[in-house]
TrEMBL record:
The chain crosses the membrane at residues 974-992. It is found in: Membrane. The lineage of its organism: Eukaryota, Fungi, Dikarya, Ascomycota, Saccharomycotina. It comes from Pichia angusta (Yeast). InterPro entries: AH/BAR_dom_sf, BAR_dom, PH-like_dom_sf, PH_domain, Sip3_PH, VASt. The keyword GTP-binding does not apply. Residues 733-899 form the VASt domain. One of its GO terms (cellular component) is membrane. Keywords: Membrane, Transmembrane, Transmembrane helix. Pfam families: BAR_3, PH. Signal peptide: none annotated. Its main location: membrane. PROSITE patterns: PH_DOMAIN, VAST. This is Protein SIP3. Residues 312-413 form the PH domain.
Amino acid sequence: MASNSEIKDSRLAPVSLSSVDVAFSQPEDRVVKLIAVGLKEASTDSPSFRASVNYMNSEIRSYQILMKKTIDHLKRFIAACAALQGISSDFQTIFSSVGQNSLVNRDIAKTCIERTSQDMDQVLGFINGALVSKKEPIQNLLNLDGDFAAYFELRRAFEGIQAKYDSYLDKFVAQPKTLDPTTAREDAQQLFELRKQYIHISLSIWISITKLRHKVSSALVELCDNLRNSSEQSRKLAEFLGLEESSIKIERARYFMDLQARSHKNLIKDLQSARRTSEESVVNICTPSNDLDSYLPATINMAHLTDTDVEQYEKHGWVFLKSKRINSKEVVWAKRWLFIKGDLFGFLSISTSGTYVEESDKIGILLANVRYKPEEDRKFCFEIKTLQTEVTIQVETLGELKSWLSVFHTVKTAALQRNSTISMSRYEPMLDLFALEPVVEKDLELVNLPSTKPENAQLLLNKSLPSLKVDIDFSAPLVTELTNLACLSHLYLTSPKVPSAFTANVWGFVNWGLYYAIKNRHDTIETATKMHSSTLNSINLRYPASYPIELRQLDLQVRSLFESYVGTDEFVLVAFKAFWSANSKQELFCHLYVTESHIYVYTTNCGLVSISLFKLTNFLYVDSVQKANYDLLRLYTVSGVSTKMKLCLEPGNLIKDQVNYLISLKKSTVSKPLETIMDELTKIKHVHSKFEPKVPSSVPLAVPQDSEGEKPIVTIASSADMDTNVKLNYNDDMHLIWIQKYDLAAKALFHVLVGDQSFLLQSMLPFAQLSVDTGTQHTVWRCDSQQKLTRIIWSPTMELLSAEQRIESMLNNKYYNFTQSTPYLYLPFGSAGRLIIRFIIFNTDSRSSKLLVYYKVMRNTNILELFSSFFFRQVILFKIEDLHKHLLSAIQNLANENRKIASAIKLYGPITKFDADELTEEEVRFEKDVKHIKMEFLFNLVLQKLNLEFDKLLHVATKLLINALFSTYKNFQLHWLLVLSLGISLLLNVYFSGKTTYEYWIEHNTEKYVNSLVQKPTLMKRMISVRDIQDLAHNTSAQLSYNSTESQCFLEFRKQTSTAENSSPTQSKIQSRLVEFGLQRNELLTEIGILNAAERAYLTSEWKRWVFDEHRNCELVRAKYPQRYDEQLSRYCDSAKTEMDYISHSLL
């Protein structure tokens, strides 16, 4: 089946079939395009599809046998548990009766027997309680028998229709050239109907396999959940055996299986819709032509075979290869999948076992000559000839023949223009297991050339690689027998950007994910220009020795999915599985892989897959919130968008810290080697694995001190790191001086105040300037074992500007509690005191919050401490108003943002922290520091205060002046006010009266003049006579010559201006212009004639109406008013009667 011969997309054959779009929750972001890879492969009947369904069939059969063994074993287990329950119920009764006999020593033996009986009863009861299942554990497995039976029945139908289709296709292409075209068209129609049946059942069996995989997975997860229970005995036994973490993971697996079931239920509708679209596409593509010439090779015009309306640079499809059997003279036509892409062409084929895909050599397009071969016995054949081989290929229809020849011609022309080096080489399969196994003689010419690979490479690839017993362990888009080996090959090889066995055993005949996610279907020509020969024939020892095996497996998954789009110096460092909240109604299961530069996302749901690529620099930071059944991960981007993900099995705090570390590392100007990055990620993992709570809890985690000599790892803090104790009232220890509500979420306000790029809080320092001082610096937040974050701020230019900031409590977007402390300040007139300001932010709703500000002064006992307290209080009152202005300005800046939290993080920075209990050098110096305040600083502070007070005084004075004027107006004597008003009113009345009189006489005179015009109508005329028209038409110029009849010069000019019909074809410019004038004159005269005719018709119609009306009026006057019918009126009526008779006679 040459499936893509007439695909409407002129450039990319593989994208003709539909896919499913799932939008992000944020409208401005891109869409996730879910691709039904199996449907696309099934609709084209590709070798990957055939190999995959054959391999899955063998896997399902073997799994059914294994399932039966599992059910038998579970039945024995249930019987054993029931027997144990019976034994435990009878044990105490039987064993206690043994001690009741008189033969037993009542003093010692009876006591021992009674205690043993009671203890064994508790032990057996405990065991029975732990082994009791929630429900019948094997019922779901038994229910799968019906699903297996339905699949096998569909499989038998599939095999029957597939055999019938293949047989009929072989007969159809073997038709002789002399066959009657009408018969050939009827056979093509029968083949088309059979093809529709085959494609329909191919799509059905793929969807059946998809549903069966989901049902089997759900049944197994439910089985594991049923085998354990939530009883007290089971909990204690798990705690005793150290299985709490395993129990939590099983509970979460069950929760996420339920999520996947809901997602499956929603997406199955989209899958069915994609199936219908695929079938419709196949019908449109494969409908046979009704033109009889399409079935007659004799009508082929060889000169126009390569002509095409569009340029196509890529093509894939089934063809028939002419060859002899090996060691035989019998000629056969072997079915092969031919492709041309990226200046190369080659063949794919199904293995002899039918369970994986093989490949031939890839041959450069400039090494081959392609021509139509009319001398062949079969229809629609063409020849590909190189120095090493010559193959004859047959396609199914004339349209396919033209398409293949056109693509070869177009690609070859483009390669010549670019002087492509790839198109002048031949590339053998790098792995022998994927090389085409020869079935016919021509296969030997396609793969059995002398190898160019060195001997050590042959040993490495073909002996070491297949012997590796490593399971890549992920759900590939498409599964064959060699899918795992194709993924393992990326240990040393890179998948090229052209079809290969590596891609065919993982994705299909093309990498569908790259077409939609990265290439966007617009760079097929660029594939050849950007592709390097190193991806086709080079072997790379990719991983350093320090790169662990578990990360290598994850990195192989990414390279199998994204292929050559993953950089050679890029390695997976963090990976996790999650449910991605793509929108409010759908959650997509996905694998996420984080490298030094990117986040790679691979989603697989209900047979629909997608890959996405995001730069790390697009993210601000990651936050984590622990829930009962999952950890919620929220990723904030620089565009203001936040994305939610539910983590499946990995701890959210660990993933959050590791990803935040990589984000901060990417944004840093200092690069680190791979070994250092992995060591620091391992330290983060060690911290979380050692002190992670065994059950979800809000209790803060204990973080150990860094070992001596180790540099702390910088990550980003979040509310999950903090104590969640909420306290608002500190009046017993501090003084409340400010409470204010702001139209900003609590989390956003928090980042506005203490973000890494925020300088607002520094304005609260006693000797800071009124404007925000961006010259201050600060250390990274240090997180101690009590989960308190501390940093020091200072100014390089002003010694007094230093403070310690400490975050004590955070509850995500609900509550934040932090302090700012100055060093000890020694006043000239008092004791040394430390000013401590506490800021509390708590949410009032999702869009607003309140800010509470407390303060206190820690001071030594001194006789002047009262004055010091008064001084600090005045400073705080003075500075809090300044902070309020800055906050209002910040809120105004964020007013136009749709997502204010993410925008606040983007503008004011995240909270970057590192874990350590040891004080930093800056903190040690701060604790010992005492600042002596000079009088000039006090004087400067007083001036700032006076300046602010003067502004306030000016504002109050202006307000008082306005109030005084208004009061004066109110208290003015009323009668004088009335007199003034009357005087003004009199003047206005006189003015408007005069104006009204003037306007009246103007209007009166105008009306009188108009009436005089009405009494005697005036008609303006301009008569144009026929002579005038003739003069205008003929007199085109003045007298040109002194003697127009005898001047030889003028007579010659008249000849040149002649426009007679028999004039020369090469007439002069003058003649042409005169002809134009004549044509325009003709048009104008024609328009005048039309206008005159219209005028005559209109006047005739009006004249007839006038005569009829006047004649009727005359008759009416003669009948009703004879006394007024005088002689003058009689003459008028007689003339009207005469005109009436004339008109009637004219009509007759």
